[in-house]
Design brief:
The chain has 525 residues and is of the alpha/beta class. It is built from 18 helices and 24 strands. Among the domains are: 152 residues, Rossmann fold (3-Layer(aba) Sandwich), CATH 3.40.50; 177 residues, 3-Layer(aba) Sandwich (Rossmann fold).
Length: 525
């Protein structure tokens, strides 16, 4: 990986004078949201031919800085310069005209339109005001550069999160941007898709583009970036070329301290003789679960391992009642779950779920953190239809301070917080009700290295408190580091049960890809 990174930097340096030109610059940028100072006099230069990474904890200001550069936010003070010229009243339209585009962490797609229509939205070919049927041809020419392989005629609303993120990236490329801001671009991508995206980024840099890479995946940052800017509490604390920078040094710059061990110590698992809180047998669903079986006991963390598309999220949604079950049995606390089991029934029975997409399924972004966190537990705070706001505020405030939300201002709308703080609010939404079974689907997606530790400790304490925990993560290290047991899923089936303490992440990846290759061979035969 280090060799690949050095080759990328060498290629960037060889791209000629384009790599020396500053395409865009932020000078003395400050930005407030209410009483919160999100950016404090930040300077940054974006040069052609370079990948410039913004890193920092959630709430450090890295996404805000990216949005200022892309014209989405107007700075309260400071200047944005393009090609050395100061731009007044910088906004998205001026940014697009100047060749600056952003792929935001919060996807902004039209679900009722096709992939091609989303990619070229606002850029359709017209003759005398009439749309021409050239979108598919133009789309295939664009996709030939990145090889994402999406069907241009598929409705975006029918795509998963990873594929929707690809559409956003294609849309930025379709606008011929010279400066591209990628905010958490790999949060929903597999390892193979991430590598393909990195190869595309390298090609863009070879063509003289400047790419801003905002990410909490530090290994990816160190692999792809040429320059690093570290933000802490809205202040630029370090900015240096990526030359022999260690992960430990980067983490220490971000946190202002040395990080403790990544995972809390595992408590002993419950006895295998204890009755399971959840038992699933030969489960199938309309969403793609074919034949899945598992057990989770009180005080136990059970992981699901699988590649993107293996059916992990679909299995979780079926257990929670969000997807329709077509076969098999779910037994919860010793009682078979009826076929009409719904999300409402699950919540009433003491089941909680942190979904894969916090924006689509988890939070109401326009409402306050207080309202979001208490939403699933309103019965605890109401009597005769009257909400006891004082007790609600006290409990929510205590929960979010425990999860180290920054700033802990629960009356602010959820959309104003960073992705990691939104994830903490979503976790708090279920913890405040004290569920007996909690399903965690990608609980640390979009969360920085410091905040991950907070969430890991919260997960460990859930099991310590006697909750049954079902954990899904695309970061296999998380499952291995936290779970007592794990099941391997492939094509909607549980293939086998494994001991997380006896495996490495590399062995898991090799196993999963071997299963995928075997299934392809069986289909071919």
């Amino acid at each position: 990986m280090a060799e690949q990174n050095s080759q990328h930097r060498a290629t960037s340096a060889e791209s000629g004078s384009a790599s020396q030109v500053t395409l865009a610059e932020a000078r003395g940028i400050s930005k407030r949201f209410g009483g919160t100072l999100a950016l404090d006099r930040v300077d940054v230069q974006l040069r052609g031919g370079e990948v410039h990474a913004f890193v920092g904890e959630n709430g450090a200001g890295k996404s805000t800085l990216g949005k200022v550069i892309a014209g989405i936010y107007s700075p309260d003070s400071g200047d944005v310069l393009v090609d050395g010229q100061k731009v007044d009243r910088w906004d998205p339209a001026k940014a697009q005209a100047a060749g600056v585009a952003m792929v935001a962490q919060e996807l902004a797609l039209a679900p009722q339109l096709t992939v091609a229509e989303n990619v070229f939205l606002g850029q359709e070919d017209r003759t005398f005001g009439v749309l021409r049927k050239t979108l598919v041809r133009r789309y295939r020419e664009l996709d030939a550069r990145v090889e994402f392989g999406l069907d241009p005629k598929t409705l975006v609303g029918d795509l998963g999160i990873a594929d929707q993120q690809k559409v956003e990236i294609l849309r930025a490329l379709a606008r011929n941007a010279r400066v591209i801001v990628l905010d958490e671009p790999t949060s929903s991508l597999s390892a193979t898709e991430t590598q393909r995206l990195h190869e595309l980024i390298k090609r863009l840099c070879e063509q003289g583009c400047a790419v801003v890479y905002v990410s909490h995946f530090l290994d990816a940052v160190l692999e792809i970036s040429d320059h690093l800017t570290v933000l802490r509490d809205g202040v630029c604390v370090a900015s240096y070329p990526n030359e022999n920078v260690s992960k430990d040094k980067l983490v220490e710059s971000m946190l202002g301290r040395v990080l403790e061990d990544a995972y809390p110590e595992k408590l002993p698992p419950p006895s295998s003789e204890d009755p399971p809180v959840l038992k699933v047998s030969a489960l199938a669903s309309r969403s793609g679960v074919v034949e899945a079986s598992l057990e989770v006991r009180a005080g136990e963390i059970v992981g699901l391992l699988g590649l993107v598309g293996s059916g992990r999220s679909e299995l979780a949604r079926t257990i929670f009642g969000a997807d329709e079950r077509t076969a098999g049995e779910i037994v919860y606390k010793g009682t078979p779950v009826p076929s009409g089991w719904s999300v409402r029934d699950a919540v009433a029975a003491g089941v909680g779920m942190v979904p894969e997409s916090r924006h689509h399924d988890g939070l109401i972004l326009q409402r306050s953190v207080r309202e979001n966190v208490s939403l699933a537990s309103l019965r605890r705070y109401s009597a005769a239809g009257v909400l006891h706001v004082g007790r609600e505020k006290r409990d929510v405030d205590s929960q979010m301070r425990h999860l180290q939300m920054r700033p802990p201002r629960i009356e602010l709308s959820a959309e104003g917080f960073s992705g990691g703080n939104q994830q903490k609010a979503l976790l708090g939404k279920w913890l405040i009700g004290g569920p007996e079974l909690i399903i965690l689907d990608e609980p640390t997606r979009g969360v920085d290295v410091g905040a991950k530790r907070t969430i890991y400790e919260a997960i460990a304490k859930m099991a310590e408190a006697g909750m049954a925990v079902l954990l899904i993560s695309s970061e296999h290290d998380e499952v291995l580091g936290l779970a007592h047991r794990a099941y391997v899923l492939s094509s909607g089936r549980t293939v086998k049960e494994v001991d997380p303490d006896a495996l490495t992440a590399d062995e898991v990846v090799r196993t999963l890809f071997a299963l995928e290759d075997l299934e392809e061979e069986e289909l071919d035969s």
